[in-house]
Specification:
Layout: E1 2-11, E2 17-27, E3 31-35, H1 42-50, E4 57-62, E5 65-66, E6 75-78, H2 92-96, H3 104-109, H4 126-137, E7 144-148, H5 156-173, E8 176-181, H6 184-190, E9 193-196
The chain binds adenosine-5'-diphosphate (ADP) and magnesium ion.
Adenosine-5'-diphosphate (ADP) binds at residues 12, 18, 36, 38-44.
C-alpha cells in the first residue's frame, strides 16, 4: 500500500503559506523519518496525512483513493500531545479499546500498568497516557502510523523500549511508519529513509 501527499499546500486563514506543493510517498514496510525545525509545519502535515485536518490545496491518496472518512482509520496519527488526542470524559481503558482490544502481552511490551485503565486521562502522566494512545493506534487493520514526536516526553530507557515494540510490530505486520522528530539521533537509528520537511514544498 502507498500513502501519498500530492501537492499539499496549507495556510491558516489569511496567514502566509506554511508550506506549498509538498509531495511525499510512504510505502507499507518502510520506516521514514521526517525532520525539520520546530514550527515548520510537520504536525500540520501529519494531521492532513491522517485526515484530521484539511489541506488548502492538494490531496492525500491511499493506493490512489481518497482516505476513508468513516469507520476505522488505516492511517493512525499518534499526537505529540496525548492529552489533546483523548476524550477527557472517557477512562483510559475505554480510550484504548475504542477500536480494538490489545492483549496482555501488548500491554506488557508497551509497559502499560492495567491499573491505569480504570483512571481518567487527568490521572495519568503524559508518558503513561501516550502509551495508551500507542496501544489504541496499533489495531490489526492499521496500515500506516504517523508518530509525531511520539516519545519526546519519555525518558531515554522507556523511549528505547517503546520504539523496539513499535518497530517489531511494524515489521511483522508490514506497516508503514513515519517518524516525526527533531531528534536526528533517533531518526538515524531507526529509519531507512529521511525526508527533510523543508525540501518537500
Ligand atoms: P511543527 O510540528 O513543525 O512544530 P506545526 O505544524 O505544529 O509545526 O505548526 C506550524 C505553524 O502553524 C506554527 O507557526 C503554528 O503556530 C501554526 N499553527 C498550527 N496550528 C494552527 C492553527 N490551528 N491555526 C493557526 N495556526 C496554526
Ligand atoms: Mg509538531
Amino acid at each position: 500500500m502507498q500513502l501519498e501527499a500530492r501537492s499539499i499546500s496549507k495556510r491558516y486563514g489569511e496567514e502566509q503559506w506554511l508550506f506549498r506543493n509538498a509531495n511525499a510517498a510512504l510505502q507499507t514496510g518502510e520506516v521514514v523519518g521526517l525532520l525539520g525545525p520546530s514550527g515548520c509545519g510537520k504536525s500540520t502535515f501529519c494531521r492532513i496525512l491522517a485526515g484530521y485536518d484539511s489541506s488548502t490545496e492538494g490531496e492525500v491518496m491511499l493506493d490512489g483513493e481518497r482516505l476513508p472518512s468513516k469507520g476505522y482509520r488505516p492511517v493512525q496519527l499518534i499526537f505529540q500531545h496525548p492529552e489533546r488526542a483523548v476524550n477527557p470524559r472517557w477512562k483510559a481503558g475505554a480510550i484504548m479499546n475504542e477500536g480494538w482490544q490489545p492483549d496482555g502481552s501488548m500491554l506488557e511490551s508497551l509497559e502499560i500498568n492495567p491499573e491505569w485503565l480504570n483512571r481518567w486521562p487527568s490521572e495519568l502522566s503524559g508518558g503513561e497516557l501516550q502509551r495508551i494512545c500507542i496501544a489504541r493506534a496499533l489495531a490489526p487493520h492499521t496500515r500506516f502510523i504517523l508518530a509525531d514526536e511520539m516519545t519526546t516526553m519519555l525518558d531515554a530507557i522507556t523511549q528505547a523500549r517503546i520504539w523496539k515494540t513499535v518497530l517489531e510490530l511494524a515489521a511483522s505486520r508490514q506497516m508503514g511508519l513515519m517518524v516525526v522528530s527533531h531528534d536526528r539521533h533517533l531518526i538515524d537509528r531507526i529509519c531507512t529513509r529521511v525526508i527533510d520537511f523543508r525540501s518537500l514544498g
